[in-house]
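Why run this: before we spend reagent on co-expression, it is cheaper to look at a predicted model of the complex and decide which construct boundaries make sense. The entries below are exactly what would go into the expression plan.
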Amino acid sequence: MVDQKLRATIITGRTIDQGVGKELGKGSQEYFDSAAVCFMDKVDMIKLGLRNGANVQVTSKYGSVVVKARKFPRGSMPGMVFIPCGLWANAVCGDDTFSMGMPMFKGFPVDVEPAPDQTVLTLNELLKKEFGKGM
Amino acid sequence: MTTELKSIVCPICGCLCDDLEVTVEDNKIVKMKNGCAVCEAKMVHGYNSEERILKPMIRKDGTLVPVSMDEAVHKAAQILADAKYPLLFGWSSSTSEAQRVGVELAEELGSALDNCCSVCHGPSVMATQEIGIPTCTLGQIRHRADLIVYWACNPWASHPRHVERYTNFSEGRFEKSEWKEYIQKIKATSGKKKLAAAARQSHFMKYQPPPRPQTCVVDAPPQTIQKMGRKMIVFDVRKTMTAEAADYFVQVEPNKDYEIIQALRCLVNDQELDVDKVGGVPVEYLKEVADALVNCEFGVIFFGLGLTASAGRFRNIEIAIALTRDLNKKTKFVISPMRGHFNVTGANVVFAWQTGYPYALDFSQGYPQYNPGENTAIDVLRRGDNDATLVISADPGAHFPKAAVQNMMKHPLITINPDWNAISRLGDVVFPTQWCGIEYEGTAYRMDHVPIVLRKVVEPPQGVLNDEELLTRILAEVRKIKAEKAAAAPPKTKCAAKVEAN
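The model came back. Tokens follow.
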């Protein structure tokens, strides 16, 4: 039985590939490949019927974004998803700072569901969609 | 012509590695040694890629159009001078010299002034101001530390040479490198994986996959925590590459760091815990960690955004510093934040020696006011208080929450960045600038507050100014516009002047 949706806790942060991608250029393929992804636990992927590289929609109460699901390569992290820092992660992050200046980058709930019919937007497309501007 | 340069400083992260060897051919970096993957991506490929901005641009009818530097400077100065409360944000990937001019500009404009620290280690600064911080330089740690704790950070990804240069894998004067042991561990793990793969493929053996754990804690307490020599303990919510290299990895539940640190404080102070688990971690594991912390000769806790950005924010850091203070009653212990951008520490330092405060500044009253949570960039943006924004050496377009950037987009946006990142793509006035540490030299502060001079490696593109020169020109133009406005304004009545003075 495949689940329709996974309630998970999201963590955003750095990966070495995202670091390399951003230094090569935010418009580069390397940046897109490394930042528009969502690392998930293998068991959670099986529950949702996802293959490695399938499109998923990640939704929080602050926003929604489509990214590629990837199996987390080390250890297990059931009920947790990880999106590298970048525009795609920020689309679901909240701007509440709890009076400390620091927004919600880690540890808040999101829903993850398969999105086979939706595409992962590129940096330019996402900028146009979210902010109505771009190159 | 080929030139080989040694002792070049890496302008990427807070480690500021100063041992790069760079080969320059025809004013282009063609090869480098000693850098990490991120450094090589920038120094050899990224700095000169197609993403580079080479001309100032102004958005006209929705499209960015190249203009002269004079026109762009005038337009930017006009926007800033007309604004009642602009926000000046970024600074962390710029030199301290440019940051100094930035503070002057903010004072002139009566604006909000903030640096990237507010979305990384701002809470650490707040905690330090609350109870102080026992810390030392990375050199001390390299030579003397025998226990390294990485808490909620992943240097393997964000500071790739930190472990190699300053902690477990560095060869200190009094502590040996643990490289060899790590390589043996990798070989053993690789061998086990090969055996498991062979067993899976074999028709003669019935392979049983190991049972999956039901909880977040995946490892039983290993014996490695008792080993001699340098030890590395990692606390994180997921098993990162750093955790894989560690002697002891403790996987904690998200947002439970405060409870775990508090539990460790109890154990370090010889108190008993009447629960089996804290934050998903069995107390038995924590007792082993507490023993290791107390029994080391020189320990250090490095912490990252996992503490500053999760529930508790600056209280997490406060309690981590309190743990370090407790440990100092029994042994020698220090604590240090893992600063991200190469000069984010410098931004705090420069802002502090210019104004008295390290970030989250407001000059709207004519003097600096400091109030994190109110004057920090995200808070100014979410309230929609600012009516113009200048972003320099940062990319809030890719690193601020969507709602904050949407508010930023409602008003004119000036960007100063060497390449087309997300915020440059959204800018109304876009300035190119030189890569600091590649095309011009300047001062940057390492994560342990040691100032290091970034060196110039190649010549910048023609007509492109560095941050300090550009800001100085904008500041002069702002002053000129304001003087013209003051001269053109009708003379004030005695009564109006009195009201303004009050």
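Residues 179-201 of chain B form the longest helix (23 residues). The mean pLDDT of chain B is 92. Bring this page to Monday's planning discussion.
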